[in-house]
């Protein structure tokens, strides 16, 4: 069993892949082995999380997720705890594994109850796991979910918090909010994107020993996605110069929105780009930023885009429209954000220029938030959020480029790549200008020589990490964030 930390990357598997792995493991192991291991792992983690807990409420559903709870109850009873088990199943209707664990719990003397205990020190949510249908829980299950969420005690979810969809991170209206989740056999993508992070709390993995099975070692399943790990430390050789880290042109900052372009430029600068030019679309009011004299202001037309990484859109307003044909045709590499995305969503000619970039091998990164992604896909933000991995993958295929779908559990997709979910960042990033900072940071990584997908993954991780390390008592502003990015 391991607690998932965000420094190393982890493979994620959807329900179909997890089921395939489960079947291969079950074929190679004696009956009931997986559930026995799962229940033991749940009980061990419960004990580790709440060593002094006396009464433990185990809420069990009708399927095998409930079976894991029954199995855990047996161990906790034997270890001198007072598990109280409420079960929505029955010996006649339960699947074989859960029925076997029911007998074992009975024999161990576990207390079964029709109603939850009045007080408890820990709750184990074993209502629904990967077999859950995306339908609203009702009746006793709904009552129990409300009680679990109203309790002040730790909540350990078995495999998934009940109501969380394993593949997408979508939740039913009524769903369990866990403090800890022990994912079984595999880590699922839904734990880390959309509502997953809020629902799951800290995530643990019990692989149930299947990595030692020869059948699976010989034919490992391809991950559905990766949870990103920390990028390797960037080394700057002594014999390098500003040309080694590339030129960036930030094109944006229409009247009244100059700040967005300056934030992106500041981020590019502080993230280590060699030289940063700014082409403002405000009619030329600014020729120097005295707080950042390193930035070089130029008319957009004077920028030699073919040798540059262009970060465009930040505060670009409608004015970015006139610049996009040249940027998309000429820029060596490009990050397309905000207003530039909205303009492209409404212009098929620009969409053609965008997709043609991949034929020339020109790096392109699109950075939509869910509403911008919806505009590009011709759908709604709710539909994008309902399956973020699918939406991000569709955008990457449609526009032949790397796509960063922002939001909790930001995603990166690109044609031919397994998608990546970013684990860093927090709600403090939900403030004006942080998207501009991210665009500038991605630009710096592109200018430094990374390919588009890697540049996006590394930048998103570092952007989130900077927010995670932000001093608790200090307001997070985009300007300060742009100055605190790692090289
Ligand atoms: N994979 C592995 O290797 C291992 C898996 N293991 C464990 O098995 C779990 C998967 O078990 P599972 O397949 O029995 O599904 P599970 O999540 O218990 O739910 C199915 C039941 O719930 C019901 N139901 C569904 N939605 C509902 C709703 N909204 N409201 C009310 N009821 C609802 C559904 O009823 P139905 O929809 O069929 O009417 C059915 O009865 C997995 O997550 C892990 O914990 C480990 O033991 C060992 C290794
Ligand atoms: K559960």
TrEMBL record:
Amino acids binding K(+): 65, 125, 162
UniProt keywords, alphabetically: ATP-binding, Isomerase, Lyase, Metal-binding, Multifunctional enzyme, NAD, NADP, Nucleotide-binding, Potassium
UniProt KW NADP keyword: yes
Enzyme nomenclature, EC number: 4.2.1.136, 5.1.99.6
Domain YjeF N-terminal residue range list: 18-216
GO BP of this protein: metabolite repair; nicotinamide nucleotide metabolic process
Catalytic reactions on record: (6R)-NADPHX = (6S)-NADPHX; (6S)-NADPHX + ADP = AMP + phosphate + NADPH + H(+); (6R)-NADHX = (6S)-NADHX; (6S)-NADHX + ADP = AMP + phosphate + NADH + H(+)
NCBIfam families linked: yjeF_cterm, yjeF_nterm
Family: Belongs to the NnrE/AIBP family. Belongs to the NnrD/CARKD family.
Protein name as annotated: Bifunctional NAD(P)H-hydrate repair enzyme
Annotated source species: Albidiferax ferrireducens (strain ATCC BAA-621 / DSM 15236 / T118) (Rhodoferax ferrireducens)
Higher taxonomy: Bacteria, Pseudomonadati, Pseudomonadota, Betaproteobacteria, Burkholderiales
Gene: nnrE
């Amino acid at each position: 069993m391991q607690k998932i930390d965000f420094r190393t990357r982890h493979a994620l598997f959807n329900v179909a892949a997890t089921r395939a792995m489960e079947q291969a493991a079950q074929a190679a192991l004696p009956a009931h082995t997986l559930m026995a291991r799962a229940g033991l792992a749940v009980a061990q983690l419960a004990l580790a999380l709440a060593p002094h807990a006396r009464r433990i409420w185990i809420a069990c559903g009708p399927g095998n997720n409930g079976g894991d709870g029954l199995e855990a109850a047996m161990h906790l009873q034997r270890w001198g705890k007072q598990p109280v088990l409420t079960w929505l199943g029955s010996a006649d209707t339960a699947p074989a594994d859960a029925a076997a664990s029911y007998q074992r719990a009975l024999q161990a003397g576990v207390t079964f109850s029709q109603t939850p205990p009045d007080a408890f020190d820990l709750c184990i949510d074993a209502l629904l796991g990967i077999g859950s249908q995306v339908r609203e829980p009702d009746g006793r299950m709904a009552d129990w979910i409300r009680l679990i969420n109203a309790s002040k005690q730790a909540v350990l979810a078995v495999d998934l918090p009940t109501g969380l969809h394993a593949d997408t991170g979508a939740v039913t209206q009524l769903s369990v909010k866990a403090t800890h989740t022990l994912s079984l056999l595999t880590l699922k993508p839904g734990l880390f994107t959309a509502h997953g992070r809020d629902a799951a709390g800290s995530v643990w993995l019990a692989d149930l020993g299947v990595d030692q099975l020869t059948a699976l070692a010989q034919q490992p399943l391809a991950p559905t996605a990766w949870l990103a790990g920390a990028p390797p430390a960037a080394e700057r050789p002594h014999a390098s110069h500003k040309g080694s880290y590339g030129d960036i042109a930030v094109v944006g900052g229409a009247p009244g929105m100059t700040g967005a372009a300056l934030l992106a430029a500041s981020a590019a600068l502080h993230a280590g780009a060699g030289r940063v030019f700014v082409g403002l679309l405000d009619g030329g009011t600014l020729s120097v930023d005295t707080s950042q004299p390193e930035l070089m202001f130029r008319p957009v037309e004077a920028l030699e885009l073919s040798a540059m990484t262009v970060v465009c859109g930040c505060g670009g307003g409608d004015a970015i429209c006139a610049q996009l044909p040249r940027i998309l045709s000429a820029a060596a590499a490009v990050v397309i954000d905000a207003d530039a995305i909205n303009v492209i969503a409404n212009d098929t000619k620009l969409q053609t220029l965008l997709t043609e970039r991949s034929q020339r091998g020109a790096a392109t990164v699109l950075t939509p938030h869910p509403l911008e992604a919806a505009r590009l896909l011709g759908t709604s933000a709710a539909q994008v959020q309902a399956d973020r991995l699918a939406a991000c993958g569709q955008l990457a295929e449609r526009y032949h480029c790397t796509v960063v779908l922002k939001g909790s559990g930001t995603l990166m997709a690109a044609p031919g790549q397994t998608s990546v979910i970013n684990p860093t960042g927090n709600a403090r990033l939900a403030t004006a200008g942080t998207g501009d900072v991210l665009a500038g940071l991605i630009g710096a990584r592109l200018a430094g020589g990374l390919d588009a997908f890697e540049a996006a993954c590394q930048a998103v991780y570092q952007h989130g990490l900077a927010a995670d390390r932000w001093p608790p008592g200090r307001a997070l502003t985009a300007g300060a964030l742009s100055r605190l990015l790692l090289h």
